[in-house]
Structure formats: C-alpha cells, structure tokens
C-alpha cells in the first residue's frame, strides 16, 4: 500500500483527503498541529491516520517524511522549502498548491539528482488557471497561431443567492491574507506598454468584466503579470494581465479602507477605545464629533455614500469597545470582517475563472477565445474553493504514484504530461470550462 503524508488540515483539505482515501489502495496520514482537525478529516476511515505534528519539530517531520511515498504540503508557503529539502534527502515526491518561491526554484538541480518531482501551484489560482491557459496556448500553436493578448481573472465569491451583505464578499477562512493582497503593487502589459500601479492606487484601477449568465464584476490587476509572458512562452503577446474578480463596489470601498490606514500592520495601543474612537484616531483625531462627517471630509466622499454605509454596516462607526487593546489596525479590521462576513450554514460559494485570448493565424485571421469556469460549492458540503484547490493536488498525487507523471525536478503544471490528465479528470468531476470562439 502506497503511503501519502498530508501536512496541514486547513479548510481546503477535506476534498483532497477524501479523494485519496477513496482510492482504496492508499494509506493517508494527515499531520496537523491541531490534531482534532486531522481527526475530523480522517473521519474514522480505516486507511487514514490522524497525527499531531508541529513543523518546528524537525526530527518528527523527518521521521514522517522518511516513512511515506509522497508528501502533500498544505501548510503556509514559508515552510515548503524546509519540507522540500527533507523530501530531497529521503527521495520522496512532493506536491503543493502554493506559488513557487525562488528558494523552491533553486532546488531544481537537487530534486533532479534525487530523482524526485516537487510539483507546485496545483490548486486553483495558481493551478487550474495555468493548466487551462497552457491547453489553449498549445492548441493555438499547433494550428500555427500565436497569442497576441492574454487577460485572466479569478475570484472566489458568494454564490448569487448567498450574496447578502453590502460588501458582496464572505470569508470561509481568515481574511488577513485577502486584505493584505490589497497592499500589493501591480504590473501588467497592455497593448505593448508596461503599466505599473503603486499599492496605494491598486483599487483605483479596475475594469468591469462581464461573465455570461452572472453579470458584471470588478476586475483588478493581481501583482506582477509580466513574468507569465516567459512562463507561458508567449513572447508574441502585446497584452498580459492576470487579475482578481470581486462584486461591484468592492474596489471603491477597499480604496477608502486603504486611505484610512485600516490595512496598517504596525502594532499600537488602543486601550479604552471604541470603534468610533479608533476611526477618529486613524483620521488624526478630528475635532468634529460626528463620525460620518469626519469620514466624509477625510475621504472626500458624501456622507450618504455606499462606502460610508458599508463601514457603518461593519460596525466601525459604533460605540462598541474594540476587541483588543493592542495590535494593528489590520488585526481590528480582520476580526470584524471575519465576524460579519461569514457564510451561513448551507450557503454556497462560487468560483469564477475566465481566460480571454486574442490569437492570430496565417492569412490575417484573428480569433477571440474565451474560456470560463464557474463552479459552486455544495450546500452543507464542500466549498467550491476547497474542491478547486484540493482536487487538482489530489489528482496529481495519484498520477505521480501511478508513475503517469514521471518528470523530475521542480515544476508547475504547464506541460501536457501534467495538465492534460488533471483537466480531464476535473471535467469528469464536474469542474469544467465553457469555451467560446469568435473571429474578429
């Protein structure tokens, strides 16, 4: 029986664990710092083991890696290189859903010498996005075409019937990561021109993106899109943009949240303050007692604006005491958002991933290709986010164990040997793209 070690038992792990346990010939161990989470995932399955492991326990980690056939690391990305080095030492394959870091890339030669594969970015974004992009790019190239433009947006959102709050967003995990992404600068290529957006202006630059059957969403640029020109091997492209999708109103509101300093990470003493006091302090303690008037003046918006209404709905204008006396503004905002922007029992989330290509062919032919994935969570079951992140990692693990993926080194899923069988099985599991082509 092949042995699989899964490090981490977070909210996206369940579909991954259950898929592998359902293979009948795999032993699956879930190791987590909080063993109760691992126990819940295994759910008394006879081929499953739940164990407690702190990643700082290096001897314990090495012992578990030495006794397995493949390691799936679902822990924070900063731990991946440590896990990868032990996988190299013990010649064990490794899978992660996280973005590949420079430290991981630099392990390529060592992984090849050990004869193992370290496969990164096999989740949703990154993951499925790469796979579908490369499938279409390779198809265009097989027909003697070349890519002139690539624009991609991805978002995890409430399903339309679950979109019940003024922010148009809900969290199924800690919001800190989502909010911190709002502090990133962005770079992309548009019609041959490199565009740079400083972090403070990120939410001022967005487009309205129409998703067939679902309506319009706001799309804004996600970090640096330029390296994907080389990564996808499309030097011909004049446009390269990867972005994030949100419901309408998100960008204008987050822009003012940034302007207020609500994403600041510096620890401060907030002893004895209410939320209203907290906001006034961020605005340098204006003398005016009317908090709405202060916000209106400070942010340059009307008191009746939707943005102030959203902040009021979040209880940030209230006389309630702050939940902590020390911490950052980001900690306070994150705690309040986690409290107010939760999924109710039985509500569904929704994943939207859309790629748009312009391809040119010999004879002055041009084609617009739109490939769209929309997927919904299962009421009272797995979220779409968990399925679209966990299942690609699970499928790739099975393919590695069955020796259907035989390459070695450090990789992401941009070659047919990896992406073709994963996309095919995802389609069989109901996670599929709808493709539309039109001559232009």
Shape: globular
CATH architecture call of the largest domain = 3-Layer(aba) Sandwich
Question: Which fold name fills CATH's third level, the topology of the largest domain?
Answer: Rossmann fold
The first-level CATH class of the largest domain is given as Alpha Beta
- Beta-strand level of the residues, as a percent range? 25-35%
Which quaternary structure do these chains form?
Answer: single chain
Helix-residue proportion = 25-40%
In total, the number of domains comes to 3
Beta strands, count: 18
Mean pLDDT: 95
Distance between the termini: 54 Å
Number of helices: 16
Poorly predicted runs are none
**Could you tell me the radius of gyration in angstroms?**
23 Å
In the sheet with the most strands, the strands line up as: 3-2-1-4-5-6-17
SS-based structural class? alpha/beta
| CATH H level, superfamily name of the largest domain | NAD(P)-binding Rossmann-like Domain
User: What does the main sheet amount to?
Assistant: 7 strands, parallel
């Amino acid at each position: 029986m092949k042995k699989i070690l899964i490090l981490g038992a977070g909210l996206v792990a369940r579909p991954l664990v259950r898929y592998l346990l359902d293979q009948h010939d795999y032993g699956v161990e879930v190791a987590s710092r909080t063993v109760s989470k691992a126990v819940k995932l295994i759910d008394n399955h006879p081929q499953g083991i739940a164990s407690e492991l702190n990643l700082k326990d290096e001897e314990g980690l090495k012992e578990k890696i030495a006794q397995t056939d493949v390691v799936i690391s679902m822990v924070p990305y900063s731990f991946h290189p440590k896990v990868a080095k032990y996988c190299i030492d013990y010649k064990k394959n490794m899978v992660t859903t996280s973005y590949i870091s420079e430290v991981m890339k630099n392990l390529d030669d060592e992984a090849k010498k050990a004869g193992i594969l370290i496969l990164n970015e096999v989740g949703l974004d990154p993951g499925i996005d790469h796979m579908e992009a490369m499938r279409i790019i390779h198809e265009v190239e097989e027909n003697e075409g070349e890519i002139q433009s690539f624009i991609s947006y991805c978002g995890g959102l409430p399903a339309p019937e679950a979109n019940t709050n003024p922010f148009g967003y809900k969290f199924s995990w800690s919001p800190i990561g989502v909010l911190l992404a709002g502090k990133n600068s962005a770079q992309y290529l548009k019609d041959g021109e490199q565009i740079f957006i400083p972090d403070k202006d990120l939410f001022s630059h967005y487009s309205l993106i129409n998703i067939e059957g679902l309506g319009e969403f706001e799309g804004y640029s996600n970090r640096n899109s330029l390296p994907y020109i080389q990564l996808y091997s499309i030097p011909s492209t004049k446009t390269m943009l990867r972005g994030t999708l949100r419901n309408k109103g998100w960008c204008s509101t987050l822009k003012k949240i940034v302007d207020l300093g609500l994403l600041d990470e510096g620890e401060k003493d907030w002893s004895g303050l209410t939320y209203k006091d907290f906001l006034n302090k961020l605005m340098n303690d204006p003398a005016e007692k009317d908090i709405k008037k202060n916000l209106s003046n400070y942010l340059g918006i009307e008191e009746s604006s939707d943005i102030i209404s959203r902040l009021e709905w979040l209880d940030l204008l209230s006389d309630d005491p702050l939940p902590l006396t020390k911490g950052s503004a980001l900690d306070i905002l994150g705690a309040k958002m986690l409290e107010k922007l939760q999924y109710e029992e039985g509500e569904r989330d929704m994943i939207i991933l859309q790629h748009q290509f312009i391809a040119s062919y010999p004879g002055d032919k041009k084609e617009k290709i739109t490939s769209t994935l929309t997927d919904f969570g299962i009421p009272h079951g797995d979220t779409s986010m968990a399925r679209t992140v966990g299942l690609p990692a699970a499928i790739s693990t099975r393919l590695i164990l069955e020796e259907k993926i035989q390459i070695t080194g450090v990789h992401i899923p941009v070659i047919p040997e990896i992406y073709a069988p994963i996309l095919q099985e995802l389609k069989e599991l109901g996670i599929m793209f709808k493709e539309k082509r039109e001559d232009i």
